[in-house]
Design a protein that fits this description.
Low-confidence stretches: 1-22, 306-326
Strand order of the largest sheet: 5-4-3-6-7-9-8
Structural class: alpha/beta
CATH class of the largest domain: Alpha Beta
Order of helices and strands: HHHEEHHHHEHEHEEHEHHEEH
Helix content: 40-55%
CATH superfamily of the largest domain: Vaccinia Virus protein VP39
Number of domains: 2
Largest sheet: 7 strands, mixed
Number of strands: 9
CATH architecture of the largest domain: 3-Layer(aba) Sandwich
Oligomer: single chain
Mean pLDDT: 81
Radius of gyration: 31 Å
Distance between the termini: 88 Å
Length: about 325
């Protein structure tokens, strides 16, 4: 191999290493595999390229740690070589290889679109998308999982936030949560009533009431207590059932409320000292047998609400129950 071809080969390798593995480089440059391997080894030994393993393949790219002198030399060699017909042919073959790869991917999605959700759930689990979305949370947040039950939500939140206060009124539920959450050092489990939370004022950045509110006798009091432990501009997330007519839930599962509509919930939240209420009905899960759900979010208002002690729990239960059953 003459000197010109050697320079062309070295240029070709460095030109395409950001895109190819050895087989791709061999196809693009139309050279034997032994020649490709030899040149890549020389470039790697001299730290012109770096590589990473990906299964049975190894991918190469121009080293991002090149010195200024090396970058200057690369530019000096690359500029005249890039204008040669051989380099143009190399680039054309690289583009063709990438086009084949794109076509394979497009063909897969064209045939798999009808089964994609099932395939993704089988490979990665049904909640992969929601679990990944939790990474959007601010890692400095202190969150309250109020009515944490067996700790499923706390376990999902804990890797993404600074601390989770998990609180529940059932010692049996907390025992199950403790087993689930043993590996988390940023979780505090506490037994306590939602109407009288074992937390100081303004200690949470966010609070979650997940499928909890329908179990409490006085939601207005719980919301006011939640507001007490939230910091200024703190956020509240409620997820619960929309209004429904399953009376049997009262006896079977101890439900006090048959879901909530937007008007009743907004009235309680406003009275408790929240603003910016957003009530969003959630789509039904095809496999679910229970009522449709909603989420409601709100922020702590700067206006101090009326003292909750002036509120009669019995009145709120009777009056607001009429709202959501109508």
């Amino acid at each position: 191999m003459n000197h010109r071809n050697s320079v062309r080969n070295a240029h070709g390798f460095v030109l395409i290493v950001g895109h190819q593995n050895k087989s791709g480089s061999q196809a693009a440059l139309q050279l034997p595999q032994s020649t490709v391997s030899r040149h890549l080894k020389i470039l790697a030994d001299e730290r012109w390229v770096t590589s990473r393993a990906d299964g049975a393949s190894r991918w190469y790219r121009l080293s991002p740690a090149l010195s200024d002198e090396a970058k200057g030399l690369w530019t000096l060699v690359r500029t005249p070589m890039a204008a040669t017909p051989a380099a143009a042919q190399d680039v054309a073959r690289v583009d063709a290889l990438l086009g084949v790869r794109r076509a394979r991917s497009e063909a897969f999605f064209a045939t798999a679109s009808a089964e994609w959700d099932t395939l993704r759930a089988t490979l990665f689990g049904a909640r992969a998308d929601l679990t990944a979305a939790l990474a959007l949370l601010d890692p400095s947040l202190v969150v309250g999982d109020l009515g944490c039950g067996t700790g499923a939500l706390t376990a999902a939140l804990a890797p993404h936030v600074a601390h989770v206060h998990a609180i529940d009124g059932s010692s049996q539920m907390l025992a199950a949560a403790r087993s689930r959450l043993m590996g988390f050092e940023n979780v505090t489990l506490t037994e306590g009533a939602l109407e009288s939370l074992p937390l100081p004022d303004a200690c949470l950045d966010a609070a979650v009431l997940l499928l909890v509110l329908h179990h409490v006798a006085d939601p207005a009091r719980v919301l006011a207590e939640t507001r007490r432990v939230l910091r200024p501009n703190g956020r509240l997330l409620i997820a619960d059932m929309r209004a429904h007519a399953h009376e049997e839930y009262r006896q079977q599962m101890g439900h006090v409320w048959l879901g909530f509509d937007a008007d009743a919930l907004s009235t309680w939240l406003d009275a408790a000292g929240f603003h910016g209420v957003r009530y969003v009905p959630l789509p039904m899960d095809a496999d679910a047998t229970g009522p449709a759900l909603f989420t409601a979010t709100a922020r702590v208002s700067h206006v101090v609400p009326a003292l909750i002690s002036q509120h009669n729990p019995t009145d709120s239960f009777e009056d607001n129950r009429q709202w959501q059953l109508q």
